Amino acid sequence: MLSDDQGTVDMGCYGATDLITPNMDRLAARGVRFTQFYVGASICSPSRAALMTGRYPVHAGLATNAYGDRGLPPDQVTMAEVFKAAGYGTALFGKWHLGETPPLSPNAQGFDEFLGFKVGCIDNYSHFFYWHGPNRHDLWHNEQEHWEPGTYFSDIVVREATRFLEENRDRPFFLYLPFNLPHYPMQPERRFVRLYRDIKDPNRRRYAAFLTTLDSRVGEILDMVDALGLAENTIIVYFSDHGHSTEERAFGGGGSAGPYRGHKFTLWEGGIRVPAIISWPGHIPAGEVRNQPVMSIDLLPTLAHYCGVRLPDREIDGVDISRVVESPEAPWPHQVMHWAQGKRWAVREGKWKLVFDGGLFLADLESDPSESRNLIDQFPEVAKRLKRLHETWISQYTGGQK
Amino acid sequence: MLSDDQGTVDMGCYGATDLITPNMDRLAARGVRFTQFYVGASICSPSRAALMTGRYPVHAGLATNAYGDRGLPPDQVTMAEVFKAAGYGTALFGKWHLGETPPLSPNAQGFDEFLGFKVGCIDNYSHFFYWHGPNRHDLWHNEQEHWEPGTYFSDIVVREATRFLEENRDRPFFLYLPFNLPHYPMQPERRFVRLYRDIKDPNRRRYAAFLTTLDSRVGEILDMVDALGLAENTIIVYFSDHGHSTEERAFGGGGSAGPYRGHKFTLWEGGIRVPAIISWPGHIPAGEVRNQPVMSIDLLPTLAHYCGVRLPDREIDGVDISRVVESPEAPWPHQVMHWAQGKRWAVREGKWKLVFDGGLFLADLESDPSESRNLIDQFPEVAKRLKRLHETWISQYTGGQK
Question: What ipTM was predicted for this assembly?
Answer without folding.
Answer: 0.94
